[in-house]
Amino acid sequence: MADAALRLTRLAEELLSVPLPVRIRAWDGSEAGPPGAPVLAIRDRRAVRRLLWKPGELGLARAWVAGEIDVEGDLYEALDLLADLIWEREGDGPGAVRALRDPRLRAAARELLKLGGPCPPPPPPPEELRRHTGRLHTRRRDREAISHHYDVGNDFYSLVLGPSMVYSCAYFPDPDASLEDAQRDKLDLVARKLDLKRGQRLLDVGCGWGSMALHAARHYGVHVTGITISAEQAAHARERVAEEGLADRVEIRVQDYRDVLPQALGSAQAGDAPFGPYDAISSIGMAEHVGAVRYGEYAADLYALLKPGGRLLNHQIARRPLTSEETYHVDAFIDSYVFPDGELAPVGRTVALLEEAGFEVRDLESIREHYALTLRHWVARLEKNWEAAVQTVTPGRARVWRLYMAASALSFEHNKIGVNQVLAVKPAASGASGLPLRSRVWGG
C-alpha cells in the first residue's frame, strides 16, 4: 500500500461532501491534498479504525492523544481549517455516521475499513477519564473530576503557567505585554474591584495554587481563606504561603464550597468562634465546575457568606446562547480528557442566578480577547518546554493540553465562547452599594 494518503483524501471528501482543506501524509509515506496547506500526518492506521468506531471529534481526539495523528505546520491554522468539518458538524455527525444510511457512502466506509484493518477498535488512551455513573456534581464525582484535571503534577503546570501559577485569563495592558505582567494585572484588577482594604476577610473560592490569596494578603493586607478540592494545588499553595511568611494572613483549605457555610455556622453554634461573614469573595475560573444543577446553591452560599455591602467577583467562561433550533452538546474531547462534567452557561443565565440569590449585579466586563492571548502564551510555553513536559507527565497528557489550549484560543478569538468578570454586591439595609458613581473607576 503506497497510496494510502490519496485514498484517504478521496474517501474523506466523499464522506464529508467537501474538499479536504489540509494535506494528508499517511503511514506509508504517501501524500495528497492541497500543496502548501498544513499537513495532517496519520502515523498509524489505527487512527482510521478509531474514526470508524467513533466518528467525529472523540475519535480524532483519541488518535491525537495516542500520537497516531499529528499536525505538521501551524497548529492554529490546521485547527481553523478543520473546525467546520469536525466541531461545527458535531450535531449531525460527520459523514461516516451518514454512511450507515446511504448505500453509496457505505461503500466508502468499507474502503476505510480496508485501510484501517479489520481489527476491533483500539482501547482509548489511558489519559481518557472513565465515565462515572450516578448524579452529576455530587461531592465525590466533583472531587474525581477536579483531580483528573488538576492533580497531574504541579511541576507540569509550572512549565505551562510560569512563575505566577495562575490558571485563568490574564489581563493584558497591551498585546505585547508579558504573561507575568498580565497575570499580575488581572489579580490586581480583581482586588480593586473588590475594594480590598487592610484587615478585611476575603474568601477565595477555587483558590488554585494560591496566587490570588497571596496577592491580596501581600499587597492589600487582607486575611484570606482559600479553598480548593485539589490536594496537589493545596499543598503547593501552602508551600508558597510559608515561603512568603504569610501564614498569619492566609489559610488554605482542602474544602468543597458547599461545606464552607455549614462549617462556619456549626462553629458559631458550638461557641468555638462567632460566625463573621466575609467582606469579599473572589471566584476566579471555578464556577465552570459547579454545573447547572448546583449553580443556585453556589450563588446562595456565597450570598450567605458575605456581610451586607460585601462584594463578589465571579470570573467565569461563558458559551453563547442557543437559538430555538439549537441543542447544547457537551464537547466530547473536553469532557473526556480535560474538564470532566464541566458546564458552560450564557452570561445572562449566570447574572440571573446571582440576582435570584439576592445579589445586585453592578458591573460586567467581557475580557474574551484577553483569554485568547493567555492561551497562546500557555501553548508557546508548553511547546518551548515540550521535552520536560512529556517527562513530567506523559506524552499523551501533554498532547491533550496542547490541543485543548490551542483549540480554546481559537474559540475565544472567533467568539464561540467568552469570559466575563461579574461584580455583584450583597445589598446593605440602607441600599448603599459602596461603589463609586463611575463604576469603572476601581481605585488604586
TrEMBL record:
Domain Polyketide synthase-like methyltransferase, residue spans: 156-405
Kinase keyword on record: no
GO molecular function: methyltransferase activity
InterPro entries found in the cross-reference section: CFA/CMAS, CMAS, MeTfrase_dom, SAM-dependent_MTases_sf
E.C. designation(s): 2.1.1.-
SUPFAM superfamilies attached to this UniProt entry: S-adenosyl-L-methionine-dependent methyltransferases
UniProt cross-references to CDD domains, sorted A to Z: AdoMet_MTases
Top-level EC class: transferase
Keywords carried by this UniProt record: Lipid metabolism, Methyltransferase, S-adenosyl-L-methionine, Transferase
Domain of life: Bacteria
GO biological process terms held by the UniProt record: methylation
UniProt-listed Pfam families: CMAS
Protein family (similarity comment): Belongs to the CFA/CMAS family.
UniProt protein name: Class I SAM-dependent methyltransferase
Organism for this UniProt entry: Streptomyces cremeus
